[in-house]
DNA sequence: CGCCATATTGAATCGATTCAAGAAACGTGG
DNA sequence: CCACGTTTCTTGAATCGATTCAATATGGCG
């Protein structure tokens, strides 16, 4: 559910994929370390809808929200990008979304034109970009399942769980993390109002599943319960997985 | 909203993209016309979740639903694929979705392994695959906005509008089309129940926006109104697009 | 310290769902 | 070709989960 995150999808990916990635890694990583670094303040836009899609970005530190806005102001966040994630993978000449930092952020900027040229000559690089795009698609599909099918409790539980799992992958504490975004951001990601997000967090707290020392700080008290709630163990006797 | 459809996204794409596509078109099209044709009955699966992702498919005739099923049976349709659309664009070794024909369908089958090899040597082909994947991502994002932000009326109106526009692109009547899928399918795409889909269609009919000669046959009576409803002109005085 | 953003909580409402009953459409076999 | 059974669709009534509106509370920051 953390979306956009190539890492978050790695969970479900297969070993050979990583192996292929390694060959390309060298050249691509070189390219990135040489790429200019850009600093963005919280709330500043990295790019906006309609801007020329001149660069591919990689988040170094911080976090960025990707979103579109409907003509009446409703906003759908497509995902949050965290360190290591790539932004701007499309093939369009202009961005069709807004990318806004939700905290001070640093990104590496690669020229889209030269990257495209390089990819035409280097199949390993091309494959790497293809994989990154496929990962973004997988993350978007995850979120689609969430907004299309899940209850508020499942959405919020799943959202929190994604932080726990990301921490786990990164060797950090899977039972304590910070929410860098506002309740409004969470709501606009999950298709809920800010009030519902707040109420649902309160409910998880009163169920002793999480603690909220501060409103942007989460401590997981019962990871199993959180996982069950994300899967829809709201109240009903859990339907046997594949039983008839 | 018709999702997955490379065509449906072409609307929003830019001229140079098509130009680039043309060069690759020749080789790719050759490859496809030589590829074996497979016939699938209605309700038959082209592939299922967990199957080896051995092939890339292109729909020749018919229609296919792409979906995932949650452990408790809820189903999210990610999109419908129509003639010309590509299926199986991922990089994973196994499919992470089900592809089920919703009417008798014919598909061309390309070996994923050989295609991958060819793409490594032919940047134009690689770009074509990349574009197709980007189109699928764009379509999925559209659907995410729909399920995340829109009301039942907006969802159904937008869904119908996609058929109208597809017909328009194909030189067919934009005011008459057939719905190849069931109400259940529509509901599982849009994140609504079958009853809500039915009621909403009835509402559009009683508002004289559409006619339903048969339940799988739609005639648009007021395209403007349908477009307005898809954009959220439910009842409120439509907010000026970009006004402050 | 005090202010403005953000977050929480409550009460009333509303849109969509659920449960339930028919109606229509479809396919199949007589 | 019609009758039948089955599936799909429609419609109604009651319910429920999430939203809306409104009133505090909290907290980050100048």
Structure description:
The structure is a homodimer of 244-residue chains. By secondary structure, chain A is an alpha+beta fold. Chain A has two domains: 6-139, Jelly Rolls (Sandwich); 150-230, Winged helix-like DNA-binding domain superfamily/Winged helix DNA-binding domain (Arc Repressor Mutant, subunit A, Orthogonal Bundle). In chain A, 45% of the residues lie in helices and 23% in strands. Chain A has eight helices and nine strands. Chain A has helices at residues 6-10, 15-34, 112-121, 123-149, 152-169, 183-190, 194-206, 223-230; strands at 37-40, 45-47, 55-69, 75-81, 86-87, 98-111, 176-178, 210-214, 217-220. In chain A, strands 1, 2, 3, 4, 5 and 6 form a six-stranded antiparallel β-sheet that branches. In chain A, strand 8 and strand 9 (217-220) form a beta hairpin. In chain A, helix 3 packs across helix 4 (123-149) and helix 5 (152-169) crosses helix 8 (223-230). The longest helix of chain A is centred in the middle third of the chain and has 27 residues, at 123-149. Chain A starts with 5 loop residues before the first helix and ends in a 14-residue tail after the last helix. Chains A and B meet through strand 4, helix 3 and helix 4 of A and strand 4, helix 3 and helix 4 of B. The structure holds a DNA duplex (30 and 30 nucleotides).
């Amino acid at each position: 559910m953390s979306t956009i995150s190539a890492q978050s999808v790695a969970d479900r990916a297969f070993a050979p994929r990583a192996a292929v990635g390694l060959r390309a890694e060298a050249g691509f990583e070189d390219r990135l370390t040489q790429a200019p670094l850009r600093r963005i303040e919280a709330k500043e836009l990295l790019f906006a809808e309609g801007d020329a899609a001149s660069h591919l970005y990689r988040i170094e530190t911080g976090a960025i929200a990707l979103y579109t806005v409907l003509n009446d102001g409703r906003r759908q966040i497509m995902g949050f990008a965290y360190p290591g994630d790539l932004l701007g993978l499309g093939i369009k000449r202009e961005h069709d979304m807004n990318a806004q930092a939700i905290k001070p952020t640093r990104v590496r900027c690669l020229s889209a034109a030269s990257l495209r040229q390089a990819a035409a000559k280097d199949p390993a690089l091309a494959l790497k970009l293809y994989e990154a795009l496929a990962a973004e698609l997988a993350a978007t599909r995850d979120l689609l399942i969430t907004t299309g099918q899940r209850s508020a409790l499942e959405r919020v539980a799943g959202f929190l769980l994604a932080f726990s799992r990301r921490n786990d992958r990164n060797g950090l504490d899977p039972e304590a993390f910070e929410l860098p975004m506002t309740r409004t951001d969470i709501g606009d990601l999950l298709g809920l109002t800010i009030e519902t997000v707040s109420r649902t967090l309160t409910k998880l707290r009163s169920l002793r599943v999480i603690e909220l020392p501060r409103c942007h700080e989460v401590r997981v008290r019962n990871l199993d319960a959180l996982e069950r709630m994300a899967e829809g163990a709201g109240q009903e006797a859990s339907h046997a997985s594949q039983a008839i």
